[in-house]
Amino acid sequence: MKTSRRKFILSSSLLASFGSLSKIFAQEKTSTKPVVISTWNFGAAANVEAWKILSKDGRSLDAVEAGVQVPEGDPKETSVGLGGLPDRDGRVTLDACIMDEFSNCGAVACLEHIVHPISVARKVMEKTPHVLLVGDGALQFALANGFKKENLLTPESEKIWKEWLKKAEYKPIVNIENHDTIGMIALDASQNLSGACTTSGMAFKLHGRVGDSPIIGAGLFVDNEIGAATSTGVGEEVIRICGSHLVVELMRQGRSPQQACEQAVQRIVKNQPGKSKEMQVGFLALNKNGEIGAYALQKGFTYAVYSPEVPNTIFESKSYY
Ligand code: ASP
Hints:
Blueprint: H1 2-11, E1 35-39, H2 43-54, H3 60-73, E2 94-99, E3 105-111, H4 117-127, E4 132-134, H5 135-144, H6 155-167, E5 182-187, E6 193-199, E7 220-223, E8 227-233, H7 235-240, H8 243-252, H9 257-271, E9 281-287, E10 292-296, E11 302-306, E12 313-316, E13 318-319
Parallel strand pairs: 3-4, 10-13
Antiparallel strand pairs: 1-5, 1-11, 2-3, 2-6, 5-6, 7-8, 8-9, 9-10, 11-12
Helix pairs in contact: 2-3, 3-4, 8-9
Aspartic acid binds next to strand 8.
């Protein structure tokens, strides 16, 4: 998967600037609206969809929903939506959440059979008095709202799962392969922030396991006065520190997005000095001025930025280790 993603980047003319790695660490700031940022290499294709809305002065909420639908609907992406790697029982269970500039939010967890959990999360936000629906209840709600029931387990993902079953060892590998999430944050021309986060979670997890991605404050948090943050990696560690909320609160206290992401990662290291050496967690943040921060436990955490000054470019964050 890593190889195919890299190939995708190299073959895409949009991302021609990826080669200039020297720019990577310099780019922590952008001041012109609108801007969209998203986790991992697949964020670049997602940014293109979001940009179609943002560049026409559209709302950041619409942009992030449209953006993350791209990897959700791509059967070749084995960590989000259709084609996501299943749990240990062979069931593809999806987690997603969305949050807007008014602190409205909606989420679904352990949702099966629906290609676009982010849109179900948005419906939860807009049509119910609740924030989070899970499992069968979330599916029932999705079907009642016109979503189609589909088989999300592609032959490719089924093959990987069957191979895994031979040893059935649960061992998350640092940087993709059996985890990944798209977290996306956008600041629109009206200076409003929204975010979306969607994943199939850790591959081969226990059935019913929910990670950080659909948990408001863990996988995503938006405060329109201050900024927004999202996360990827081992969700349990992000939940333990309320990661995205922590990043936003650190920004409120005056830290730059970069400093805030670094301090959140350091908190995980403090909690888990040993374990943190072997796992990946990455944070991505954007403040109200369009400044960007990104930091991870391990090398290899990439994110994509699209703004008037940055033509949809993939950067690699700094890391603790
Ligand atoms: N954070 C996701 C989870 O724990 C997985 C990932 O981003 O790699 O479910």
